[in-house]
Amino acid sequence: MARSTSKDAQALFNSLRSAYAATPTSLKIIDLYVGFAVFTALIQVVYMAIVGSFPFNSFLSGVLSCVGTAVLAVCLRIQVNKENKEFKDLPPERAFADFVLCNLVLHLVIMNFLG
Amino acid sequence: MADPENAKEATTLRYAFGNVLSFFILLLIGVLAFWIRLFSVIKYESVIHEFDPYFNYRVTQFLTKNGIYDFWNWFDDRTWYPLGRVIGGTVYPGLTLTAGTIWWILNSLNIPLSVETVCVFTAPIFSAFASWATYLLTKEVKGAGAGLTAAALLAMVPSYISRSVAGSYDNEAVAIFALIFTFYLYIKTLNTGSLFYATLNALAYFYMVCSWGGYTFIINLIPMHVLLCIVTGRYSSRLYIAYAPLVVLGTLLAALVPVVGFNAVMTSEHFASFLVFIIIHVVAFVYYIKGILSPKMFKVAVTLVVSVGLVVCCAVMAILIALVASSPTKGWSGRSLSLLDPTYASKYIPIIASVSEHQPPTWPSYFMDINVLAFLVPAGIIACFLPLSDASSFVVLYIVTSVYFSGVMVRLMLVLAPAACVMSGIALSESFSVFTRSIKFQLHGLSGSSQVDSGDASSSTVVAQNDAGKAEKTEDTAKERPSKKSKKKEKGIVDKPSLKAKIERRLLVLPFEASIFAILLLVLLGAFYVVHCVWAAAEAYSAPSIVLTSYSHDGGLHVFDDFREAYAWLSHNTEVDDKVASWWDYGYQTTAMANRTVIVDNNTWNNTHIATVGTAMSSPEKAAWEIFNSLDVKYVLVVFGGLVGYPSDDINKFLWMVRIGGGVFPHIKEPDYLRDGQYRIDSQATPTMLNCLMYKLSYYRFVETDGRGFDRVRQTEIGKKNFKLTHFEEVFTTHHWMVRIYKLKPPRNRIRGKTKKPRSKTSSTTRTKRSAATKRNPWH
């Protein structure tokens, strides 16, 4: 039972890796950026757990800026992905411009809230 | 072959004409929304109404005089003496900032409107914007015809008029516009999947958070809708784009507003959005994995993840639930709990229960406030299901939740009004389109499905025969929707016109005369609605409540301006630093118009302070004098309606003072003031009632007016008629005895008769004796 599950797990892992290797490089860059943002957020949470949460607004703005850029990058990836049927009429430049605008608003708010 | 080209040209021409016509209709709707709210300005004067708007007006005055930095950091010491109030941190700044900006823009253009004028007319202007926002919202859900109908309905709906009439300068005036606009941008993002609209959505949500505490409705409704879409299998990447940026940006923007601050992440009102945020990420990830794996591998992944993930999930949920359950209110604020459990406020928070706006509405008030829409709403709900889209499921959820909340509190009928208008607009538009299509069909017989397909060239000739005013809208409806339909058909299913024609033919089996008659009936329905709305706006909701009028038997108008008379007397005849005590209803008006420091006002944030004033009003004269003296009070103000029959006076509110005071100071007991469970002020009243300060201050010298002391509101003669006041002196009574102002007498210099022993010796023995017998009175 355990061996079949571990074999299954291995097979799953391999198929996942091969499927992911097929994605275009631009999408892989976005995925890397998302991973980096989430990792930074995790580091901030660990730091807060060690040092304490004062001042809370700085902690909130730091974590939420990381989470926010991650979410926006995922949205960009959705819109730019060529396999996505819903967005085939959307030029990728427009998607990127929207991404930049939303990030601008996000970081304006972050700067204000950082304190 | 020339025929389709001509038809196409005619289509674009009709389309352009339709656009211009709908633009003018929208303009007229905005003007209508503005003008219908001006009845109070015409009947009375351009004055600010009620109580809360006076506070907002005072804050706006401060903002325009001192600028935004002073406003943001303002600590107000003229209210809640001696506590004061941090205005910058406890007020929702949206309304005052909006009015302040409008005033500043107008003044910089050299249009010298006063702050009061801007404040009075802010609400009608924003109701025009709200009806345009309703047009946009309903256009996204069903189409432009439904949009125009819904906008026209919202411009006039009495529930919205009641809170946005000219002079009602309250948060809801701009908040309803922000609410509808936020919902429109959410639906637009959901329909188009564009991140640009998602950004705008977050900014509109920010404006809503600035304006009203009801923003928690949005931040709970949208996650509920997202969850509904996920559960019913309507997950798409547009849903992710519509929801996820809104949560992150929205939380941050909400935390920027000082009133909300860290509540945006710490109170239970927001937890639903975070929970659904996590859920939508899980779902998105699952769909992504499903997309890149083969089905067999996906099954393996599912079994693996479910077994591991379920354990982790349960552990996290257990921790969260333990955290939330450990706080006594489960993390919800008192106001939200009173919404979820309607009996909560009456059991635990008498202040919230005592406000008349927080009572549940009666059935007739639904018909009064949304009239005809009350039975058009179910038709609209059915129309939303054919076909069901993301947007129409959202509107259905909106109306269901708002109907529930409007059943809890009368005040929230206001949130029901836009939903009811949207639904009714959809219902009316759908029914008009069915009738007009069947008329068109009957007139052309069964000649050719192509004419039904393109629809527009024939529609103009048919519909031009109708000549009622509403028919303009049906013409527009018939043009807009078939033109949209034809565009969609050209793009997509070009090879199935015959099937479509067959389906359409099956729909339009209504007889010709029945359709004409039905359209006439619908127009008549609309006419009744308009008549009711204009009546409600003119008669029911335009009273400024600071000026009262009545008609005498010979038809003359009699004006009661006692409130302003009293405040003017206060501002001219007392020192600037004198403190005035009254019940909390009149606090805002006293600070705004009389410019004197008050003890409690309508913000009701400190229950103990209000209970102190309530106890003082319920105590005998000497005890009340002690309490007021400890608060540095110089003047006491009571409102008395017994001479003219004004029913909202302090004697009618007195039992609430007893309840609230008794809630904090147990020596005040409500049964002491009731005779056999009945509240009386005549000769059968209890001695505690006849000796309390409120009775004495209301009825002092009342017997001099007609010889017998007949109270017109309570319809009896008063119990104690001739008495003197020992610790207070009357300094002013207004023309109709509606406001009476008393001054605290200073303590005597010499004590005649028995001298008092030094307090320390006797008080200890008397205190122990008294505490054994009765509950301790903290001021003795």
From TrEMBL, chain A:
Keywords: Apoptosis, Endoplasmic reticulum, Membrane, Transmembrane, Transmembrane helix. One of its GO terms (cellular component) is oligosaccharyltransferase complex. Pathway: Protein modification; protein glycosylation. The keyword Transmembrane applies. InterPro entries: DAD/Ost2. It is a multi-pass membrane protein. It holds the Pfam family DAD. GO terms for biological process: protein N-linked glycosylation. It is found in: Endoplasmic reticulum membrane. The chain crosses the membrane at residues 32-50, 56-76, 96-114. Belongs to the DAD/OST2 family. Component of the oligosaccharyltransferase (OST) complex. Subunit of the oligosaccharyl transferase (OST) complex that catalyzes the initial transfer of a defined glycan (Glc(3)Man(9)GlcNAc(2) in eukaryotes) from the lipid carrier dolichol-pyrophosphate to an asparagine residue within an Asn-X-Ser/Thr consensus motif in nascent polypeptide chains, the first step in protein N-glycosylation. N-glycosylation occurs cotranslationally and the complex associates with the Sec61 complex at the channel-forming translocon complex that mediates protein translocation across the endoplasmic reticulum (ER). All subunits are required for a maximal enzyme activity. This is Dolichyl-diphosphooligosaccharide--protein glycosyltransferase subunit DAD1. It comes from Hevea brasiliensis (Para rubber tree).
TrEMBL record, chain B:
It is found in: Endomembrane system. This is dolichyl-diphosphooligosaccharide--protein glycotransferase. The chain crosses the membrane at residues 12-36, 86-106, 118-137, 143-161, 173-198, 204-228, 240-265, 271-289, 301-325, 366-386, 393-410, 507-531. Gene3D superfamilies: 3.40.50.12610. Residues 748-760, 767-780 have a biased composition (Basic residues). The keyword Glycosyltransferase applies. It catalyses: a di-trans,poly-cis-dolichyl diphosphooligosaccharide + L-asparaginyl-[protein] = N(4)-(oligosaccharide-(1->4)-N-acetyl-beta-D-glucosaminyl-(1->4)-N-acetyl-beta-D-glucosaminyl)-L-asparaginyl-[protein] + a di-trans,poly-cis-dolichyl diphosphate + H(+). InterPro entries: Oligo_trans_STT3, STT3-PglB_core, STT3_N.
